[in-house]
Structures are given as C-alpha cells and as structure tokens.
Amino acid sequence: MSSATLVARRARRAAAVSLVAVAALSLSACGNDKDDNGAAANGSSSAASAGASGPDEASGSHSGTGSGSESAGTSAGGGGGHGKGTAAAPASNLSPRSASDRCAAADMSLRVGDADAGAGNIHYPLVFTNTGKKTCSLGGYPGVSLLAGDGQQVGSPAKREGGKGSVVRLAPGKSAYAALRTINDGLKDAPCWKTGKIVKAYAPGSKDAMTARTSGLRVCGDTFTVGALQPGTGPQG
Predict the structure, then answer these.
(1) Do the Cβ atoms of 232 and 176 come closer than 8 Å?
(2) What are the start and end residues of every segment in region (Disordered) (predicted)?
(3) Of 12-26, 78-92, 192-206, 211-225, which range is least confident?
(4) How far apart are CA 97 and CA 136, in angstroms?
(5) pLDDT tens digit string along 173-188?
(6) Cβ distance 225 to 158 under 8 Å?
(7) Separation CA 188–CA 121 (nearest Å)
(8) In 3D, which of 131, 136, 115, 128 has the Cα closest to residue 177?
(9) What is d(CA 171, CA 205) in angstroms, rounded to the nearest whole number?
C-alpha cells in the first residue's frame, strides 16, 4: 500500500472521529438546554402556583378573621341582647327607677274588686296597694292565675291584653290595678271553667306570689285576660 493511500485513510478516520465528538457535544448541549428549560418552566410553574395560593391564603385568613369576628359579634350581640331582655326588663316590660325602687310583694296587699259587666264582657279590678313605708314603682302586666278552693289551678293563666301602660309611682297607702276580663256565658262555644275562689298573682318584676280571695270569678268562652297596671283601684274606684 502506498504512502498516499495511508495518509488518505488516516485523514478520513480523523474526520470521522471529529464528527462523532461534535455530535456528542451537540447532544450534551441539547440535554442541558432541555434541563435548563425544564427547570425554568418548573420555576415559573412554582412561582405561578405560589402567586395563586398567596391571595387564597390571604383571602382565607381574611375570611377566617371575618367569620370569627362575625361569629363573635353574633354571639356577643345575641347573648347581650338576650341578657338585656331577660335581666334589664322585668316581667312588665317596663323598668322602675331601680330594682330597689320596685314594689316588693312583702310591702303590698292584693284584693279583687267588684265585677263590672257590660257589652258581654265582665271586668274585675285586681288591686295592688302599697302597705310599706316608702314610695315604690310598678309597671306593666302582673302574672295571674285562677285557683279553686283547694289551691288547684283552674284553666290557663291570664293572657296579656292592651298596651303596656306606664310605670306607676305608689306612695304608702296608694294603689294600682290591672283589669281582669272574661265574657258572658254563651258568647262563645267554649264552656265556662270551674268557678275560681282564689286569684294568684305575681306583681311585675316579682317572683313572690300573692293571693286574694274572690267571691266567685268564673271564666267563660276560654277568655281570661289581664291588662297593664293603672293608677287607682278601678274605673269606679
């Protein structure tokens, strides 16, 4: 084989080796580009994800704070509202100047006045009199039930009727009354109750029961109501 032929072969081999090396370098560069692009893409995705979750978390925190405040407000408002309704307002829905100013059952007497009939209605004044030594206040509706001679309750407690009125100031010896009302027999299909012998009453704002004898209060037509307290001993008193 001639020298020229050997030189040509060696040149072709060197060229082939160079081509292989170039191809390998190209593949390596492509791989690196792909990794870099992938990392960049992942980085963008993570950033986008972080950007999306940021407002959500802030919104969630805001919503949580809002909900918590709203719940607390509702609870406090509800509780506060309910507490005021129960504690601040006596059964009368009217407030004397102070709790100590309210007439106490121990410093009052109770009696049932004479019946006043007219237009199918029968009214009985339920009279509270201040027997104490100090002026006191009453206002609103007393709680009233009718009892038989043996103390058993007759029918249902009286229902409130009419406006709540105003606070009545009672000097020693002075009275206020609430009108008890029923109707004549036969005005309604409902039968009359057993005749009552005792009226049991709670003065507005008081938990102490008072009783008074009655000559015979009979409720008819399932109609038994009580009005708010007014000054005096009754329309005719």
Answers:
(1) yes
(2) 35-100
(3) 78-92
(4) 9
(5) 999 999 999 999 999 9
(6) yes
(7) 12
(8) 128
(9) 18
Q: How far apart, in whole angstroms, are the C-alpha atoms of residue 128 and residue 177?
A: 6
How many Cβ atoms from other residues are within 10 Å of residue 207's Cβ? 9
- Look at phi and psi of residue 186 and say left if phi exceeds 0, alpha if psi is from -120 to 50, else beta: left
Mean local confidence (pLDDT), 109-127: 95
* 90 neighbors 205 (Cβ within 8 angstroms): yes
Q: Name the residue ranges covered by the structural domains of the chain.
A: 1-88, 99-231
Residue carrying the six token digits 């002075």: 174
Residues 6+ apart with CB under 8 A from 26: none
Tokens of 81: 């509202």
| CATH top-level class of 99-231 | mainly beta
Nearest-CA neighbor of 111 among 175, 191, 40?
175
Three-state DSSP class for residue 233: coil
Q: Which residue has the tokens 């009368």?
A: 92
